[in-house]
Fold this protein.
Amino acid sequence: MKSAVVVFPGSNREGDVMRALRSAGSQVEKVWHAETDLPAGTDLVVLPGGFSYGDYLRCGAIAGRATVMDAVRAHAARGGLVLGICNGFQILCESGLLPGILMRNANLKFICHRQFLRVERNDTAFTRAYAKGQAIDVCVAHGEGNYTADGETLKRLEGEGLVAFRYSDASGQVTADANRNGSMNSIAGIYSDKLNVLGMMPHPENLIEDLVGGTDGRGLFESLVSSFATAA
Amino acid sequence: MIRNDVAITPELVKEHGLKPDEYDRFVKLIGRTPTITELGIVSAMWNEHCSYKSSRLHLRGLPTSAPWVIQGPGENAGVIDIGDGLACIFKMESHNHPSFIEPYQGATTGVGGILRDVFTMGARPIAALNFLRFGEPDHSKTRHLVSGVVAGIGGYGNSFGVPTVGGSVGFHPRYNGNILVNAMAVGLARTDEIFYAAATGVGNPIVYLGSKTGRDGIHGATMASAEFDDASEEKRPTVQVGDPFAEKLLLEACLELMKSGAVIAIQDMGAAGLTCSAVEMGAKGNLGVELDLDKVPTREEGMTAYEMMLSESQERMLMVLKPGMEKDAEAIFRKWGLDFAIIGKTTDTLRFVVKHQGEVMADLPIKELGDEAPIYDRPHLANTHQPVIAPDSVKPPVSHGEALLKLVGSPDQCSKRWVWEQYDHLILGNTVQMPGGDAAVVRVEDGPKGLAMTTDVTPRYCEADPVEGGKQAVAEAWRNITAVGGLPLAITDNLNFGNPERPEVMGQFVGCLRGISEACRALDFPVVSGNVSLYNETNGQGILPTPAIGGVGVLDDVTVNASVAFKREEDALILIGETRGWLGQSIYLRDVCGREEGAPPPVDLAAERRNGDFVRQLIRSGQVDTVHDLSDGGLALALAEMAMAGRTGAIVTSAPETMPLHAFLFGEDQARYLLAVRPDDAADILYEANAVGIPAMVLGVTGGDSLILPGREAISIEKLKAAHESWLPDYMAGKA
């Protein structure tokens, strides 16, 4: 599998996700935001975490309109895979690739902590290495992770099974306490209609080794690599 | 045309913070009356913050070398060799005065400044730490300051993309009028790719990089060189505003430029901005510098030479480039959307010449601006000593369990989760030990090495006995690094004191430095960088003497480390080191008995070294993975923290009969560690300790869901945790 990790001014978790992709067996290339094309043969586009353009104006608003995003939208329209993590999720929402928006956390503070997520479905390219309903232990680090959408969008996301992950406790129970940023329906990540675009606030890329806290994040990257092995 | 011929009156000189004799010294040096721009320049160079005029004499006594030290104090940051061709570059710096006036921006620019010091030398920052002290919780400003400072530290570090992995937060009435915000950054570079400030070569281009220059921060360094009074809040305009996004771009652009081979010398524009950076580059390289201010990118119109030379606008760098490489360098900076301007050149005149709109605004001897700054041997009083408090003389006012519960939930000892959850401590994916343990542990790149780092000092010890307190600060940093399995290598010191013109304050400074020096020598733990912050004083009330120590150590194999959490049931608890039950200046005496008094625990540096080397060896050989150093709150607090972290209880069955139980549990004797070891290994470890003359005793075993103290008093972990975790969030929510 060949991954392209887009670097915007202010991206800062590109190295983390590149390490996770490589360790799962993907080839990885960095793509500068001003490029007009993705590298030939790109299977997966990753929009990494960070503070693109300093989060000025609105998180992801400026990056969502960057030159390279036309190529990313075209890639997605062809059915290509796109993964946006944290600021990447915010950029996906701002670029129109995913619905809804990420508001300030309920407590109005940046929060960084370990967080369990419930895997809502395991039949997508991103989650096949997990079990449905499995609680995975990853982490969050954001100030604006409070997923918000209008009632109709929310109904559609729920009705069509487009919620990818929800904040949960260690046993997979979706509780108010586990939803620290105040997201609607405890949503931590969502898919596009065709399930080829995933945006998520938590960081699976930081939980890929026991030495630094655990390996529950590996599954996401292994799912992607293995789905390509089968597809190809 | 901007006039440079404002008449220099005694009032103007005074407003610039120069004493009459200092001004006379300057006039004699240049042989004429200075221009207003020159007066501004010298006030920036000769203030306490930049010239270290009160402290320089005493700093000379610090040990600064060791075989592994590549660069000691005097550069942007200290550099040590950690093996495999890698260097660790680190420094700690204060931003106390601005943070009190404008906590969010004061803290952000403190973090920004220290990160810049580290990447100026070619290092990519891999970790940040801090040391924070606030006034008493009941003081009307404290909540506001905690909230702003913590948000500011997070706001900058999180966006910049460096994990904030450790620190210290405490409260004391003596910080009511002057909080402490000390930020530390740790970076990584290859030993053959380190960059320095000294310019070389005549006629080489001097380049301005980064953000534009505005009117912010003018005289910030001068503010940091004076006491506060009731009108200090009016100094808000001298606080700079940080832009972590610009700094992140500056980092990437600088590192890319350094790789291109275009950089001869580099200096960040920190305190006193363009003045300090340009003078340092020239003076260190034995060269003159000529600047043309018409070329400086400015944010505002009509800025005068005076304003440009004294602006402390953030996220700016000065470089000397290899001639002919200007175009390549400019392309890199334009790519990152940053300003790039050739604003001057190096000369062979040894003069610092500043031109603006075709006129010479300043023409000063460059070496003398630094070298001839006043240096004072300020009068200092001998330290007074407090009586030793006999353990028997302290009667426990409450049961030991109640005392422990009170301590774990006290402002100083409670969990600081509310703070460090606002810091991204996981970015880069190398955080092996997070905040909350003895020292943070961060993997170096893909391993196998790791770095251990910590910030420490016990200000109440320094107040009671500056020499012992200074020693203790270094010893505790050394111990914290040892307790995770690290080999302590070097420190950065951030010396926060009151007004040095008061002999008792100067006495504290001199005493603490003596203690720090002694400990650094005995522990082979040299000082490689640092910062002095004086005049932390408001309306005549100074802070507790607070020489914060930032320590760094190396783990050859980061997978072999120890942490505080109990990991198994039925592990044997082993106490290493001698316990005499020292209650003087203990947290128990202060927070349980209401007495902040007595002589602090003496520090036996030979015992520190012996005990620490022994514990480290146990960790490195893989025998021991659960260690906590004993400090504030003594044995009892260490037990509670280990139990809470591991969600496993313990029962303490033995205690010596030679001292009262509360002195054994809460005494703060130094050079001690608590270990939890597999039961089969306990006998061997005791035997080994005995063989080398190290006091060691088995106290009990781990297990259960309570901590059971001698006398069978049990406190559930749940109860401990509730007290430990609730104080700070409740306080910040206005509930405590």
